[in-house]
Design goal:
heterotrimer, A mainly alpha (about 350), B alpha+beta (about 550), C mainly alpha (about 325), A: about 350 residues, mainly alpha, MetI-like fold, 16 helices, about 75% helix, about 0% strand, B: about 550 residues, alpha+beta, seven-stranded mixed sheet, six-stranded mixed sheet, 20 strands, about 30% helix
Chain lengths: ~350, ~550, ~325
């Protein structure tokens, strides 16, 4: 097991280097440069010459890469060209929102998806099956930005004045501020230390932060702002989980041990839960893990429609602004997350299904 | 006895003179004014020196006459911060998110990505806000901003979508606020590429576009067809003959004579970015394509370019074809429009025309508008004859607010003065297009940063609530000499910064020096470009 | 994007193809599969939707009331930009020109643009997938057959592509190449081909395992013959399923890129760009946002249902 893990980690290193290299080169291949992108129609050649020199962009590409690689190895992600702030700080501000969004989306997708999958498997090849499968498929057939706009219109405008009203954008109501847990509990961390960064990272998960400090006002407010984006984001994984549950359950229900259980006289619900569902859910578990990775980087459209300051949207803006340090750092971090999740999923698959062991 | 009397009276005289001198010289230590200056005027910039001649007086000495000086000095990037704060932060890093100013609002918290919260500054020198909290939020879609306004979560928004204007005007719970920031949309041509090098071709195109149809169909109500490049609200902007009338037969005849009886093939480049002068870029681009084909037989392929690349290529005159670009006024003076675009050094239309730039150079030194007028008549007529581009429209835009907000407004120059409005409650929420990049506006150019900085940091002068007239801010006034080469600004007494310190002339010097002098220790900023210092004053002192 | 989990389930599908399945006669497999497909209701619904869209695409010049690029300013009276739908049969004033789905921002008939949009979207879907499948299959087959360091390199490159969030990688590629349909197609194809490569490689590896088993079992027939006539066609069935689902994904991705302004350029009638350019008018002219989005939805839905139906029909485990 340990050998497997270390082999996998070792194999990921060249891939990570490859990703870093590709990002580095690809970002600089985009025509135009950060100066023109930032200053727009007011930019002038003299100003941009100076700009390039200040940010080290007038050096040849391989020199820039060597400098950057050196920084990365020391854990320094560099400074954003657009904001002149350390990229790690921006990452700590942005990543928690995307994590909350992705987790929320997955939980909703799991509950609804498994439910739909079970219903349609039990009523295999009937009208109910077709309807539930169409409902599930609509999730992956609908443009996410379209759904987001329609939901915002419905809940923020049409339902205004009703208790069902939901805010159309933002993370908290204007004027409300989430007090970080370390301020509430009086924990101090040195300025600009790793511990402070860690505390900030946790505290920026507003829902979790409000939960552990007992701040119910912020907790409710944050959750209400998350409902529409989470629903929008969950439609895709929901559909995939529903389909996977259905096909996996159908396959398992045809298996010998289920037939045996039925022959022994067990009632249908018992057959379902004790025998069929537990085994059928194995592949679903792996799907769920993989969706998490995809959601981290792929939420850019949802974040755009609902005005949420997440990682995907920052990456998209950084591409437009040619903010190379942000493009590079964010991509690598997402890739690392994704790889770790992949590894955990593969290991858990082996753990959950004794037939599939890793040699 | 008389000797003692003599000594006694001498001592009395001396001590009274001494005491009188002490009294007249003022309390505490004498004030040492600082200054920043260029060695000589060869560096190409407009500013020779800025000196604190007294505790509450600053003198600007210019290399060449600049009648637009006060108009420019009221612009947000020239805001004043305490010299201690600049020194402590080195003009970079912390100052980007912790500005200290004299404005009616002080920064409480910037939740990155979400909102910025300001609290009323109770020691403000001017009219204090009647409410306590100002919150700035943002959303990049007009429809999104309108939903927020309608659902009551925000009090005022910028730029609702033009198609929503009618429904806002008909909605009693909302207030429609027309915005008249002067701008211009133009159809550009680069004369270093064929067939745009032929002035007859350019003239034909000038007559072959039905600009009224474009404004009627694709611009929000309140927009106008451009009679000249510069909007008429700017002094000397509309002097000279108005633009050609739409005359497709004449246009085709001219094109025929120029050697293109069947038109020609080309491209029309644009970027899909919302601006007041071009609210719907792709739709207008297709409209141009249609008109060029129908009226002149010119086949233009529509090409979208990504914004950064588009700016790079177009402003350097590298686009072979038409391109759509425009300009929004920074400061209320005709030089902001004409000199920037038709000056000697601007490559965006190809080769520059001495017939135009020589006149503009001369006119920019004349401070009396009436005296300068005949020159601008000549300049505009020459532009009309040479057609470096076709001016199309001055785009109207709008803001919207909840009906209950008293004095909700939007200035033609600068962001709203929120401290003059009254939302009827304790908090005012304003939603703009995007998040500010930083709050150190000496080194920013995006409108979103500028509108936020203004609430906290004030320049010497500012723009009025309903026009481009400059009015006092931390300076009670700036008077220029007769040929606009020296300007004396009197600083208001008793103004406090948000950290409690008092404003004096050295703070003004420190703030300006950090921007205008490339070798100043506080010249760091965000981009390091100090774009507005560079382009409004022609160059930075001690620039490499 | 959906690629990753589709890849995973298709891989699982490929790995479960055993000796018996791979050695089956392909014609009988397809005959039985087609029969089963017709009996599955979801597959039928899918086929109907796809068929309808194909019909629209092919018959566009005959059914569309206007040319999709025809700007109607000055040519029709009583029509303003973004006019709401006017259907004479449902009571719209007969003096006004009829536009069943209304009129867009450039005063062009929306119904015609949606019908012609079927051509654009379907051709995007087919072309992208064709490209991705071709290169993916070739790379996967090479990797699986040769093994060793070639396999390693190819699979690491696929891993690098998969390590990026796919929409963002597509955006970056289009940013480098410049906006436009062709570049968007290329970007989507690059981003989706690792899935096909992996599936093909899995199939080829399973085939290689069977090499000696099959050889020992078969008397008289050449190994190569069995490989080409029986095994390879069967190994392609997961690819077929994946492609159908891939067309659905490609149409959605292209719409997403066009929505962001990076795909189809004006005045091309592509559903995603129609949505994107009108998204600020969602409350004042909702028909301009609703119908293109709806068209995308039913097309993609059709392909998804069809792909699902095909997988059910072809999966040996479900049908024995």
């Amino acid at each position: 097991m340990l050998g497997y893990i270390s082999r996998r980690l070792l194999m990921s290193i060249p891939v990570l280097i490859g990703i870093l290299l590709v990002t580095f080169v690809l970002a600089r291949l985009i025509p135009g440069d950060p100066c023109k992108a930032m200053l727009g129609e007011k930019a002038s050649p003299a100003v941009c010459e100076r700009f390039k020199r200040i940010h080290g962009l007038d050096q040849p590409i391989y020199v820039q890469f060597v400098v950057y690689a050196g920084q990365i190895v020391q854990g320094d992600f560099g400074k954003s060209i657009r904001f002149s702030r350390p990229v790690s700080k921006i990452l700590i501000e942005r990543l928690p929102l995307t994590i909350e969004l992705a987790l929320g989306g997955l939980i909703v997708a799991l509950i609804v998806g498994v439910g739909l999958g079970v219903i349609s498997a039990m009523r295999h090849n009937t009208g109910v099956d077709v309807i539930t499968m169409i409902a599930a498929n609509i999730g992956i057939s609908m443009p996410v930005f379209w759904l987001g706009l329609m939901l915002a219109y419905a809940f923020a405008l049409l339902l205004k004045g009703t208790p069902f009203w939901l805010p159309p954008s933002g993370r908290l109501t204007a004027g409300l501020v989430s007090t970080p847990f370390f301020e509430v509990w009086g924990w101090i961390a040195a300025k600009d230390s790793a511990r402070e960064a860690f505390y900030n990272f946790i505290a920026n998960h507003f829902i979790f932060n409000a939960l552990i400090t007992g701040d119910w006002k912020i907790f409710n407010d944050a959750i209400r702002h998350m409902i529409l984006p989470v629903i929008t984001l969950s439609t895709i994984p929901m559909a995939i989980i529903a389909r996977m549950t259905r096909s996996s359950l159908l396959e398992v229900m045809g298996r010998d041990y289920v037939r045996t259980a039925r022959a022994k006289g067990a009632g249908e619900p018992r057959v379902m839960t004790r025998h069929a569902l537990r085994n059928a859910l194995l592949p679903v578990v792996t799907i769920v893990g993989l969706q998490m990775g995809g959601l981290l980087g792929g939420a850019v459209l949802t974040e755009t429609v609902f005005g949420l300051a997440g990682v995907g949207r920052m990456l998209f803006e950084a591409i437009t602004a040619r903010d190379y340090p942000i493009i590079q750092a964010f991509t690598v971090v997402i890739a690392v997350f994704y790889m770790l999740i992949n590894l955990v999923v593969d290991l858990s698959y082996g753990y959950l299904d004794p037939r599939i062991r890793i040699e | 006895m008389s000797r003692i009397k003599l000594i006694g009276s001498a001592a009395a005289v001396v001590s009274s003179v001494f005491l009188a001198g002490l009294f007249l010289a003022g309390p505490a230590a004498a004030f040492t004014g600082k200054s920043v200056s260029a060695a000589n005027c060869d560096y190409g910039g407009k500013i020779k020196s800025i000196e604190a001649t007294a505790e509450f007086n600053v003198r600007f000495t210019l290399c060449a006459p600049d009648p637009a000086f006060t108009a420019k000095a009221a612009f947000t990037p020239f805001g004043i911060q305490p010299e201690e704060h600049l020194a402590a932060t080195g003009g970079g890093g912390d100052i980007l998110e912790n500005p200290i100013g004299t404005g009616p609002w002080k920064l409480q918290k910037w939740s990155r990505g979400d909102s910025i919260i300001f609290k009323r500054f109770d020691d403000y020198w001017g009219k204090k806000p009647v409410y306590e909290t100002l919150v700035i939020r943002w959303s990049d879609s007009g429809a999104g901003r309108l939903i927020e306004l309608r659902s009551g979560t925000v009090d005022q928004i910028t730029n609702p979508s033009p198609d929503d204007y009618e429904s806002i005007q008909n909605d009693a719970s909302l207030k429609f606020i027309p915005v008249s920031n002067p701008n211009i949309l133009y159809l550009a041509m680069t004369n270093t590429f064929k067939p745009f090098d032929n002035v007859r071709v350019r003239q034909a195109i000038a007559m072959g576009i039905d600009r009224q149809r474009i404004v009627d169909n694709f611009f929000p109500s309140g927009s106008e067809v451009a009679s000249h490049f510069t909007p008429c609200s700017i002094d000397n902007g509309c002097e000279g003959k108005t633009w050609y009338d739409f005359d497709p037969e004449l246009a085709r005849a001219i094109l025929h004579d120029a050697g293109y009886p069947n038109g020609f093939k080309t491209k029309i480049f644009f970027r899909d970015v919302f601006r007041g002068y071009l609210p719907e870029p792709s739709i207008v681009a297709v409209e141009f394509q249609t008109q060029l084909k129908d009226n002149l037989g010119i086949e233009a392929e529509v090409v979208v370019m990504e914004s950064g690349q588009f700016i790079d290529e177009s402003t350097n005159g590298r686009l072979d074809g038409f391109y759509l670009l425009g300009w929004g006024a920074d400061y209320p003076h005709v030089t902001n429009f004409l000199d920037f675009h038709f000056g000697e050094k601007n490559p965006q239309f190809g080769k520059t025309h001495p017939a135009i730039y020589e006149i503009l150079k001369e006119a920019s030194t004349i401070s009396d508008k009436a005296v300068a007028r005949p020159l601008y008549v000549k300049a505009n007529n020459t532009i009309r004859d040479l057609v470096p581009m076709v001016p199309i429209a001055h785009g109207a835009s709008a803001s919207a607010a909840l009906a209950g907000v008293k004095n909700a407004h939007f200035r033609p120059f600068g962001a709203p003065l929120f401290h003059l409005a009254d939302p009827g409650k304790d908090t005012f929420v304003f939603m703009q297009n995007a998040e500010p990049i930083s709050m150190y506006c000496a080194d920013e150019t995006d409108g979103e940063s500028l509108s936020v900085c203004q609430q906290v940091v004030e320049p010497l002068l500012g723009y009025a609530i309903d026009s481009g007239t400059t009015e006092p801010r931390v300076a009670t006034g700036c008077t220029g000499n007769s040929d606009a080469t020296v300007f004396n600004c009197t600083i208001r007494k008793g103004v406090k910064f948000h950290d409690g310190s008092s404003l004096d002339a050295n703070d003004v010097i420190a703030s300006w020096a950090a921007g205008i002098d490339a070798k100043n220790p506080n010249h760091k900023g965000n981009t390091g470009a100090f774009e507005y210092y560079t382009y409004l004053w022609d160059n930075l002192i001690n620039a490499e | 994007m959906i690629g990753t989990s589709l890849k995973r389930s298709a891989e699982a599908f490929a790995e479960l193809q055993d000796e018996e399945t791979l050695l089956r006669s392909p014609t009988t497999l397809w005959k039985t599969a087609l029969g089963r497909l017709f009996r599955r209701k979801t597959g039928i619904v899918g086929m109907i939707l796809v068929g309808f869209m194909l019909f629209l695409a092919i018959a566009a010049p005959l059914i569309a009331p206007h040319d999709p690029l025809n700007v109607l300013i000055g040519k029709e009276d009583g029509v303003r930009k973004r006019s709401a739908p006017c259907i004479h049969m449902f009571g719209c004033d007969t003096a006004k020109p009829q536009h069943i789905l209304g009129v867009d921002g450039n005063v062009r008939d929306l119904l015609s643009r949606i019908i012609y949009g079927a051509r654009v979207s379907l051709s995007i879907g087919f072309t992208t997938v064709a490209f991705a499948v071709t290169f993916g299959v070739i790379l996967g087959a090479i990797a699986g057959y040769w093994g060793g360091w070639i396999d390693n390199i190819i699979m690491r490159v696929m891993d690098v592509i998969l390590g990026f969030p796919s929409l963002l990688l597509a955006i970056a590629i289009v940013a480098v190449l410049g906006p436009g349909i062709r570049n968007a197609l290329l970007a989507i194809a690059i981003v989706t081909l690792p899935a096909y490569a992996r599936v093909m490689r899995a199939s080829v590896l399973t085939i290689k395992e069977l090499d000696y088993i099959a050889a020992s079992k078969v008397v008289g027939s050449s190994k190569l013959r069995i490989l080409l006539l029986r095994v390879l066609p069967n190994a392609l069935t997961p690819i077929v399923v994946l492609s159908t689902l891939g067309i659905a994904g490609a149409i959605l991705d292209a719409a997403g890129l066009s929505f962001l302004g990076l795909g189809a350029q004006p005045p091309t009638p592509e559903w995603g760009s129609m949505l994107g350019s009108e998204r600020n008018q969602v409350f004042s002219a909702p028909h301009l946002v609703f119908f293109p989005g709806f068209a995308i939805m039913i097309t993609v839905l059709g392909f998804n249902l069809l792909g699902d139906g095909m997988r059910d029909a072809l999966d040996p485990r479900l049908n024995d």
